[in-house]
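Cast an eye over this sequence plus tokens and walk me through the fold:

***
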Amino acid sequence: MEWVFDGKKYAKSKTDAKLEFRIKKHQSVLLKKLGENNEQLQLNKVTNLKIAAAKINGIIIKPGETFSYCKLVGLPTKKKGYLLGMELSFGEAKAGIGGGICQISNLIHWLVIHSPLTVTERRHHSFDPFPDDGRVLPFGSGATVFYNYIDYQFINNTEHNFQINLWFTDKCLEGELRIDTELDYAYHVIEKEHQFLKINGQFYRKNEIWRDKLLKFEGGKIVATELIMKNFARVTYEPENYEEVDGETNKNLTL
């Protein structure tokens, strides 16, 4: 009902022809070690990713249009070919139909924050259930989705057309964000203030994600810097290095 009456114009046009200029490319490993006894769920996840990626690959986001992950991908069901994959719920990993497709929304969000597109709906997991295993991107820089309660959306408030392309290699999910006109600026995203904390016997993880806007043709001159995300999440494992703080200090950590 919301998609019908919210007044948004949702992106739906797709094409195999790639827009001329690439803004950002990224890849993420398909099979990771996440806990124990989940090898089959990891393999099933690859199947789920390929089904979901086909719904998004080649999508064009025109000026004034909103990209909605849930609207494009839809509800993962057995009938559509989705298998049991790993999904996170309240800090625990469990099997669920279509589990693992957040890997696509995570990748897309990383591409989008390197562009002038405006994120309008985004959430990340409130728990960190697994130690880092070859992490490349900063903690908390992803975007979780759960049809149809939690969506990932961004709007194109520019005069340009954008395009998302997704594909697979033997080991990775790969994606890129393209545009029809080359921009004279780019973005650089970094992590700051990363820390593990122990508060009243429970572990937490916090960090900040910052973004610099650079002029390409002036030696990468920084013209703007902004804080785009602050993360504070419960950790369900014991990190190797952490700082223990008291409950009073905890009051100052609310984000």
